[in-house]
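We recall that each integer encodes one residue's backbone shape. We quote one record:
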Amino acid sequence: MTLQRLWAGALRAAALVAALACAPAGAQDFRDPVDQPFTVWPNIPVIRASDLGDYGQDRQIIADLHADKADPAKVAAALQAVDGLQAHHERAALAELGRSLNVQLIAELDRQARRINTRNPKLRFDFADITPEQLQRPSARDDLPSRVGRITLAAYITYTRLDGALVQATATLVKLRSGASQSFTATAPAPLLAEALARDLFDYFQGTRFTAHQNPLGSAQWLTAAPGHADRLVSRDAALRYCQSQNAALPTAAELETAEAAGFYGGGVALQPAGVYHVQSGLYDTALAHDGAGRARPNHLASVPNGYYYCIRHAAAPARAARTRK
């Protein structure tokens, strides 16, 4: 196989995994219900990304795994397909990585649970008393539907070798009934890969579930500097004129401090580490060690280009109905 073909296959596989794992699953958190542990099918296929790109049948198995499966028979078929994937790729993964990454991952998750001395890990790997023979050739005596119902998640791992000893691997967990999924990616030398993946999985499922941040400035809207002012110093007068042209204003020092703390992904803005920004009271200097008003200083040269800026637009207050006098 040529290097060009190898990379093409890896890219196709990466696109498939990203599309499936990032499919919207509604507003519900993947870890819900909060207090319920998840039983994971222990057979975890470890698949070289380029192989996944080359084998259409394997791609279809992965796609089917992400589909809704309310019928226990479909869940059993999915587990059967997962076992087939694991057997198909086991030898190649073992030869290339020099270890059973799936077995190591389970062992590392168990070690993480012992580290915090918990008897109730959120992820439990269990075959639910289902033998391979029962899965391949179920009979009425096996009570397979009820046993299959105990399995909550299936998993698979895709990996790509990078430069030197580095390997990038993505572990994807899939809820068997809904098809919802969550992926975790780690890059490390092969001997440390299972530990890195296990730590990410363990922290996600076992750690504190933080509530999402609220926009600290409510309905306020932030505007970047004018396109012609991007990434360059401008005068206070020029900044004011542009903000006013957008039905906005320069922020106060307190507003800019709050926006800086919230950050670009939390409803705020990103400021340069040693930047000076125009605010209503003068200049806001991020290089100063002070907080809040301590970073603000007067600007005595309103016509000199000496600061960057953002504009802020506040929602107009609702008009009050005028009272009519009788």
